[in-house]
Amino acid sequence: MIDIKLIREKKELIKQTLINHTKEGSDVSLLEKFELTDKEWKEKSTSLQNLNTKRNELSKQISILLKHGKKEEIEKIKNDVLIMKNEIEKLEGICSELEKKLKNLLFSFPNILDPLVPLGDEGANVIVKEKKPKKMNFKPLSHKELGVKLDWIDFERGAKISGSRGYFLKGEGAKLLRIIRDLTLDFHVNNGYIEMLPPTLINENALYGLGKIPFFVEDMYKTWDNLYLTATEEFALTAMHQNEILDFKKLPLKYTASTTSWRYEAGSTGKDVGGILRVHYFWNTELVNFTTQDQSKKALSDMCKQVEKVLNMFELPFRIVLLASGDTGAASSITYDFEVWVPSENKYREISSCSNCLDFQSRGLGIKYYDDKTKKNEYVHTLNGTGTSLNRLWIAIVENFQQKDGTIKFPKILQPYFVKEKDKIRKKKQSDKIIKKSKKKIK
What we know:
By secondary structure, the chain is α+β, with helices and mostly antiparallel strands. It has helices at 4-9, 11-20, 29-68, 71-107, 143-149, 155-162, 171-190, 204-210, 233-239, 296-313, 360-365, 390-400, 421-442; strands at 126-131, 153-154, 168-169, 194-196, 201-202, 228-229, 245-246, 253-262, 281-291, 318-322, 334-342, 347-356, 368-371, 376-379, 381-389. A hairpin with a 4-residue loop joins strand 13 and strand 14 (376-379). The model has no long low-confidence stretch (mean pLDDT 86).
């Protein structure tokens, strides 16, 4: 959530933020609702405070009158105090409800956008870097066609188990996802990230603090006991420190995790539904940073470099895009998307999204650190990045390294894991010869 002082003191900034965050359906009337509720809360709170002050004064009078034995006056004051008590209890109830209403409204405000963010919808996104694809001298097949042809994906049996977007990865298709998962996870760990294995269930309190309710919740699966399946590991990794004061000396804290994620994808239709591009369950390798307020700008740059290195590691064509205001998520102040080239569609597809949320999430979750400079507790800045979407990395590798005959010639980093059978036999024969020679020498 944003700082309530900003809403009270910088009305024009908040109004413009609501207008610019069109992707999240932010309603400008939200500001008016908040102001009316806030005004009523202040009035009722002032009345409550005045009544409590008056009751305290009357209680003091009773103590004085008791010393003088003035029983009649004491009884009258007691009646007045009783009436006040009922009024106070009533006002406390009203104030409590208004506070809840204010908090709910506060959770509905999106984050303040960074000045670098271009204004507009998706069409205003800015390409900041591009690594162009090599031309293919044949018509490329889609990952779905290749997956079926190579017997790497089974959609028919997947649909039996979990409906139209169900799938089994099998054989070398399953192996490929496992290997890229391990390679990306190891890469991030070797670059200073702490590996985590987070829970895949999350409660509503954490989702409110993260800024995912009310903006994102319609795409999440809810269980019978009011828990949600995580749509990305970012949720659990960020919420794990809620209501904590972090050690200033340990910041920045950097976490990575790779687990199954779940999304309902209620609004997606058409071509995106085919294959494993937009499905209900998928794999991500996620990055999360906790920083001091003056570290987050550099941390975002470092996170973007981290993702770029992963895509270069797999020799993939991609581009980096600075998202415009209307395409930026509610919790984010600034977001860079990484889009990988998909040959069968002749276009780029998002594979990673790196965001700086400033203190928006930490304010909602109550995550602070003690600042040696200000000598007080400050809210940490939180950042998150997909490093990367493994389903889409799988798609990108299969499609970009396909050959005319429908086989896959893997990038160098993957070649040791996919040795052809004839090469295995040849290497085994070589190994057997070496063993025989060594035995002769021993004799």
